[in-house]
Write a structure and sequence with these properties.
Largest sheet: 7 strands, antiparallel
Helix content: 25-40%
Number of strands: 12
Structural class: alpha+beta
Oligomer: single chain
Distance between the termini: 39 Å
Strand content: 25-35%
Length: 201
């Protein structure tokens, strides 16, 4: 867990737990009040991140998938030439490949679930019953307040987050961990439009 007002220390910790993540406060004089709480399971890393100040980041080209659920404030992501803005009740799904940069309002807090490309490909192969012939890509903007997005948020994301708050019980049971991860990975594939939505139903 991280709680820090030091920009360099925050960069270092986020790099170690999340990804290379250049961080620049929009107004350096405001300082940070950064908070990071992260849990690593077998295939998924889950974490909550807030900077406590208006901040820009430039993770660059990702080599993983990530579901980001906005809990507080406003979060804007630029993905290549596209831009998505999300507030509470919305989320963002990022796929490997495109250059990513972000803007966080001072009160923004985001819950993230990250999975490596190879692990998601293996999971998708199990669902399809054959190797995927195309790269898995998700539409980035996600509505979590209605439809399948709401079902994913209420039925899977929130309960999983609660379970992670009791981390020792979860980590101590590999079967439970695998089941929780499978549920989230499959749920996201069915809830958010992607290159295999038609085949997965």
């Amino acid at each position: 867990m991280l709680r820090s007002s030091d920009v360099d220390h925050t960069r270092e910790v986020i790099y170690r737990f999340v990804h290379r993540h250049p961080i620049e406060p929009v107004r350096p004089g405001d300082g940070l009040d950064a908070y990071l709480n992260c849990r690593r399971l077998e295939r998924i890393s889950a974490g909550y991140l807030a900077f406590g100040a208006e901040t820009r980041t430039h993770p660059g080209e990702l080599d993983f998938y990530v579901l980001q659920v906005v809990l507080f404030g406003t979060y804007t992501v630029r993905i290549g030439e596209d831009e998505v803005t999300a507030q509470p009740g919305a989320g963002v799904v990022l796929s490997p490949g495109a250059d990513v940069s972000t803007w966080w309002s001072a009160d923004c807090g985001v819950l993230s679930f990250q999975v490596r490309s190879v692990d998601y490909r293996e999971h998708l192969e199990g669902l399809l019953g054959r190797p995927p012939e195309r790269e898995l890509r998700f539409e980035p903007a996600m509505n979590l307040s209605e439809g399948r997005g709401h079902d994913l948020n209420v039925g899977i994301v929130r309960p999983l987050t609660q379970r992670l708050n009791h981390v020792f019980g979860v980590v101590g049971n590999p079967v439970t961990v695998r089941r929780l991860e499978d549920t989230l990975l499959t749920g996201l594939l069915r809830a958010q439009p992607n290159t295999y939505s038609r085949e997965l139903g």
